[in-house]
Amino acid sequence: MRDNPAPMRIGVDLGGTKIEAQVFDASWGRVTQRRIDTPRDYPRLVAAMAAGILSIAPSVDALCSGVRKATRRPRSGT
Length: 78
Prior knowledge:
Blueprint: E1 9-14, E2 18-24, E3 30-37, H1 42-56
């Protein structure tokens, strides 16, 4: 029978100047992180994100991704 380790979570912050990848434990405590400059072209951007994730979590069993558009809610009553 295989031991099932506690789940780890990976968060990636993709910004205009940096990409930061972090690994969190089951209690959302940060285990490790890596920050690199954001490449300006798409192929290098994708490669940098993959390399960043694999460098901090080399034995990932599964990786899910999602994108949420950051928006500012307009102020009402103005």
